[in-house]
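Case 239 in the screening queue. Each case pairs one protein sequence with one candidate compound; here the compound is calcium ion. For every case the pipeline is the same: read the inputs, emit a complex structure as tokens, and attach any notable structural observations.

Predict complex for case 239.
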Amino acid sequence: MKIQHVLGAALALSFAAPGCGGSNQNEPTGSGRSAAMSGSNLPDDDQGRCDTTAPDREASEYDTSGDDHPDVRRVFRRVGTPPLVRLILACREADLNGDGVKDVVRYYNDEGRPLREEADRNFDGTMDMITYFQEGRIIRQEEDSNGDGRVDTKIFYEHGHMVRTERDLAGRSTPTHWQPDRWEYFEEGRMVRMGTDLDGDGNVDRWDRDAVWSEQQRADDNAATIDEAVEETPGMEDP
Ligand SMILES: [Ca+2]
Ligand SMILES: [Ca+2]
Ligand SMILES: [Ca+2]
Ligand SMILES: [Ca+2]
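Case 239 output:
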């Protein structure tokens, strides 16, 4: 799946969100995007992705790095009718390396909980990591690790912990068909098992295991068995 394809769909979704109608008394605060300071060599367009143009949006910008140039933008959705208006965070984006271009954007659902985050981690102008959340917790990350614009790694989480990765090492995936050939399984942050599909038929041909971890598991199992045996032994009374 192409990252750009995903982003396009996401953008369509965010624009499809219904507005509040035309009864807003407050004018939208422009694009919410500030131009670079004069004399600054930062670009005019920060390539922000948060939707600041919908009539129910309110944008605010902050400088967190101390150069007087805003690097964080938060966009809120106005909910309710005056005077009972609430602001719910809808989108937040940031310029992490201070070059004037936003590198990470996080979208929030109607309750203000994180939904999806897109990040350009090597600052080359293309998003290379998408993080998905469910009920506020990370559930999956999709990564373009070699910068060819296509997802080649998926990382799966349970209860906030990484449990499995799928990788397409041979590049057999297409925009519509994900075909990993390497599966890695994790226990407490440590890879314990790895399966590889060598011939591309979708089935694992070789399993590699963490021998030390397997040995430790066996030892723990034995210890548990001994503990049970000891507990079941009637206690000897002191003479
Ligand atoms: Ca940047
Ligand atoms: Ca990138
Ligand atoms: Ca890739
Ligand atoms: Ca195979």
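Case 239 observations:
- Residues 120, 122, 124, 126, 128 surround calcium ion (ligand 2) (CB under 6 Å).
- The helical segments are 3-16, 211-232.
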